[in-house]
Specification:
7-stranded mixed β-sheet, alpha/beta, binds zinc ion, 6-stranded mixed β-sheet, 2 domains, 10 helices
Length: 346
């Protein structure tokens, strides 16, 4: 009997499941064997028995959940073909955050790619997305509407630096998610020539240290708790998005509140969050890149996991590609799932 795509991947209560390999991908409930695309909390959960992921993702999970986040873990080197049951799997860069990978599942020439979250825009903190030709492509659709086109990140970071030069006495507080976005903003600031210290909220420290240990150059970072009030005039501070509005931010002299997110394209969201300087910096593909990626994979069938699924499914139809929305529960904007409140309080 020849292999069908449904033997390679199907949907169960716990999430995406490979029957021939007997494993789940990014399950939202504890399972026997989980393959994890990346360290965001909506994809990487604690409590599985066996976990396979890239070495970076395993280390991110250990930092977030403790060393005992699973019973046994197995590193998957990028590009390495690994046999699991009756299938072969391979982890390929997804360009989303440090360690993020697409998971390629194949047997007898039939190939399914679970892309996790991904982007095509350059990111100095992780390897770029690689297109893998496949039969079935599993995609997210966080920004799956034609209105979402992300600008060049360099221009967004320059807006921040221009504002800092214009208001040298004010503290610029930048809301950014603790895994990936915060470190990307730091690396982009360095690329655009900011060589002063970058101050960090406590919730950013552990993952930023991990990025540095992994060899990502982020320059000098300082704990904001250790800083004198006078040293924070003109400083750039990175904190969790929720902190830009709360009491925490009030200790800074006349702050300029900024938020680095793809959602900052939506003016109303920026206003509603009280953001003075919105920075459109996204770790997810925008609409043109979602469409381009689907085309480039040559997939005849597309499954859309989460986000704005309907528009992307409709677009696939106009391209003659079979597509279905999965409406996966438990996935979402990475920010909604992280950081955990306890972590934020740190
Ligand atoms: Zn993610
Ligand atoms: Zn996600």
């Amino acid at each position: 009997m020849s292999t069908r795509a449904s033997d390679l991947l199907t949907l169960t209560r716990e999430g995406l499941y490979c029957p021939l390999g007997d494993f789940h991908v990014d399950p939202t409930w504890p399972v026997k064997r989980a393959l994890i695309t990346h360290g965001h909390a909506d994809h990487a959960r604690a409590g599985h028995i066996q976990v396979m992921a890239t070495p970076e993702t395993l280390r991110i999970m250990a930092v977030r959940y403790g060393e005992d986040f699973c019973t046994t873990s197995q590193e998957a080197a990028l590009g390495e073909a690994i046999r699991i049951g009756d299938v072969t799997v391979r982890f390929v860069p997804a360009g989303h955050v440090l360690g993020s990978a697409q998971i390629v599942i194949e047997r007898e020439g039939v190939r399914v790619v679970v892309s996790g979250d991904y982007k095509r825009a350059p990111d100095p903190t992780c390897l770029p997305f690689e297109v893998v030709p496949c039969d079935v492509f599993i995609t997210e659709a966080t920004f799956g509407l034609p209105v979402f086109t992300h600008p060049d990140t360099r221009g967004e970071v320059r807006k921040l630096l221009d504002s800092q030069r214009l208001f040298p006495e004010r503290t610029h507080i930048v809301g950014a998610y603790a895994l990936g976005k915060a470190q990307r903003v730091m690396a982009l600031l360095r690329e655009e020539g900011w060589d002063g210290p970058i101050h960090l909220h406590g919730a950013m420290e552990k993952l930023t240290e991990l990025y540095k240990r992994e060899g990502i150059p982020l320059g000098e970072t300082r704990k904001v708790v250790a800083a004198e009030r006078k040293d924070l005039a003109g400083a750039i501070v990175i904190c969790p998005p929720s902190s830009i509005q709360d009491l925490w931010s009030r200790k800074f002299p006349d702050p300029v509140t900024c938020f680095a997110s793809g959602w900052m394209r939506v003016r109303a969201r920026a206003r509603q969050k009280g953001v003075e300087l919105p920075l459109v910096i996204s770790d997810h593909a925008d609409w043109p890149d979602l469409c381009r990626t689907i085309r480039e994979t040559g997939a005849g069938e597309v499954w859309v996991t989460h986000g704005q699924e309907d528009a992307l499914v409709h677009w696939c139809g106009t391209e003659g590609i079979r597509a279905k929305p999965l409406h996966l529960l438990g996935y979402g904007d990475d920010g909604e799932a992280e950081p955990a409140p306890a972590e934020e309080a740190a």
